[in-house]
Amino acid sequence: MSGNLFSLLASGFPADRTRPVFRQPGADDISYGDLETLAARTAAALRAARVQPGDRVALQVEKSVEAVVIYLAVLKVGAVFLPLNAAYTPSEVQYFLDDAKPAIFIQDAQGFVAGAWDLAPDPRIEPRGADDLASIIYTSGTTGRSKGAMLTHGALAANALALHEAWGFTPDDVLLHALPTFHVHGLFVALHCAFLSGCPMVWLNRFDEAAVLERLSGATVMMGVPTFYTRLLAHPGLTREATAHMRLFISGSAPLLESAFEAFETRTGHRILERYGMSEAVIITTNPLEGERKPGSVGFPLPGVDLRIGGGEETGVIEIRGPSVFSGYWRMPEKTAEEFTADGFFITGDVGRLDADGRLWISGRAKDLIISGGYNVYPKEVELLLDEQPGVRESAVIGIPHPDFGEGVVAVVEGRGDEAALIAALRGRLAGYKTPKRVVFVEALPRNAMGKVQKALLRRTYAGLFA
Ligand code: AMP
Question: Measured on CA atoms in the order 384, 389, 393, 395, is the torsion positive or negative?
């Protein structure tokens, strides 16, 4: 078998290709055979557009079946898949295009796939080695500059196999998929588990708690970010009966509050399986399928993953080495070198500790990354824009506990002005989830002896803002 990830994924497709892969409300099912043909036609279209192995193909589209078709077609032709958040503004997107220099940039997935209809399906699968790039996933840096994490065919294949095994997927499963597909969670974690088991997915283009509860009866597994679970908990339709047939609920991409874990168990009888991952390594640890799932812990390292705590203390920065770890940041060899230890461990930037059983407990992020609704917000990017506004002397952007989003973005501004006007000034320049939900004006930001703004103090001061 070729080292191309597509070959591995297709090896899981059911022998009976008439079995469904996508089940969408109000639409006909799409079969594995249909998916295969669409991917082969779209691969022909990519080749006709002179996309070469190793070329980047950038995609900024709303979630759709066609987006998945294009992902598979990109793998087939040996190109590098570069998904971009649909919420990015044109000026944000320009940075990625300038940095990655894709051979093509697709903004209309339906149009692209429909345009392939006249072409004969191209069954070829470009031979790829384990070290060849399959995808670049941009993760913004704290300096505001995004870094492209390079993931190889080998890394993605290793993680797909490990998760398929760890979570016990079988052809009898049905995965409820309501995650976005521009991020590793919805793209690699969810799709690869479904493809490897050849199971269908209930395909929802966005998360809506009422729609999810309506479709849950046709599913056996759901993957979500913590916000999904807190929203389901707020809906009266989440009951023991509505979830009785479910095999597994999985959560990740941000910390799941212990209170949410417990409330979910009380309401449904299900103990949510929490796992930990990141763009640079896909999934690293998971709570067990069999055995105890502990609220607040992200579980054990996956087989083959070496995980240790750096710094010599009990709690410190989590360092990892293993088959799914990325091969560096795109065209940033110095940044890459800084974030690996001499013996080859990636320094994740997350802080945690291992208990006596070997379970990992994450206590926070070394940097001041904010995760709002499962998406990362890097304060610096927002601060730079705020600081350009009239009346703003300096700003500090922090995440404050938010009942719906996990964290909400708050700007503390040194200066004078109008809250609504300042928020309005940022709209259209930043994706909605990055735009501050509240702005607080202060005479002076608190600083330490070195002149650095004390963000931890700010977080404590405004902790109740969304309570
Ligand atoms: P991303 O690269 O966007 O997937 O973000 C990765 C970051 O999300 C990690 O480095 C963690 O800080 C955070 N994260 C992911 N899963 C969890 C989890 N289960 N608990 C706490 N933080 C998490």
Answer: negative
